[in-house]
Design brief:
Two copies of one chain form a homodimer.
Chain A: E1 7-12, E2 16-17, E3 23-24, H1 30-43, E4 47-51, H2 55-69, H3 72-76, H4 78-84, E5 87-90, H5 93-102, E6 110-113, H6 125-133, E7 138-143, H7 150-155, E8 158-159, H8 174-186
Parallel strand pairs in A: 1-4, 1-7, 4-5, 6-7, 6-8
Antiparallel strand pairs in A: 2-3
């Protein structure tokens, strides 16, 4: 069982690709917030960043988080509160890095991209676990829409090997991919 | 890698429990349909049953499936069509069993419940894989809301050991649980 106390998740809504491979911004999906928070809480990650540059989406996410962590939802469903307390909405990737540095004595985190496609020099789960065990903060990054852009992935320190199923079909929901990667890093136990 | 060609999934909206442990029927969540279909397609399951006794919900699910498999959605997003073709909406658990028997030469499938709680005689993934390798059809059953009722679980042939994270928090979304179990049965590769 790998300790994920130094692991942060980031769900990017910009920059991501549309189905034609063009760089776009995507809209926030409410259920992503709940699913990433609940999976993150289950496996003990430190925090989950929701990244969107759009002011109205930042506002919406802030209100949703407040409903479940301070409002009516926090009283009717304390388990949900415990999970959604992990969420942090920010307007850019730079904000993610700054925020992590702000609570880790200015350590620059190791950034780990994910992709449904096979990339050169992708690392496997064993390497990811070993890297986490060094004690450095890590940010595991997921793209919405048709995934992270090539430029963004190139800017990360490493990229995780894709999840492969029974054949060539590789269109897992981001909610599934997050859950599976966390379970694998934890040791599939 | 375990062949899942004999594995069916069933997502139950009745009978399930509410947070007080009372037996209730739950409403269908649109994203469950997409996520279970996409995860099921990725790992090669045979079909995914959506079980609800409510006529309006059966109608709604039928229309959603038709949109993605025959309507506009099937042309704009063929990958989604490929996944949602796995979905079958039925009004009862008995219908699931009948339908499976109808396409497996009247073989009664092995029924496998899932639960977030530890149950006596729960089987682990290795036992599940070995059972699948015998070639019999299996139905892996998931509950919405607060999970399957005790009576329903008792009626199944076996129950899978729960997914355990880093601590005692055990409130994974059903979408996460399905994804993780399929990845584990496949071998976490």
């Amino acid at each position: 069982m790998t300790d994920m106390g130094n692991l942060y998740l980031a769900l990017m809504h910009y920059p991501v690709q549309n189905r034609k491979g063009q760089q776009v911004g995507s809209a926030v999906t409410n259920l992503d917030l709940h699913d990433l928070a609940r999976a993150g809480r289950t496996f003990g990650v430190r925090a989950v960043y929701i990244v969107t540059p759009y002011g109205d989406q930042v506002q919406l996410v802030s209100e949703l988080i407040a409903h479940w962590t301070e409002g009516v939802g926090s009283r009717t469903n304390p388990d949900r509160k415990e999970a959604l307390q992990l969420l942090r909405v920010v307007d850019s990737w730079d904000q993610v890095l700054e925020d992590v540095q702000g609570e880790t004595n200015h350590v620059t985190p190791v950034t780990v991209a994910t992709s449904a496609g096979i990339r050169e020099h992708a690392v496997d789960i064993k390497q990811m676990q070993m890297s986490l065990e060094q004690g450095m903060p890590h940010v595991l990054v997921f793209g919405t829409a048709w995934g992270l852009t090539r430029e963004f992935m190139d800017s990360c320190d490493m990229c995780l090997f894709p999840i492969q199923g029974a054949g060539s079909y590789n269109h897992l929901p981001v909610r599934s991919a997050v859950s599976i990667y966390l379970d694998r890093i934890n040791g599939c136990m």
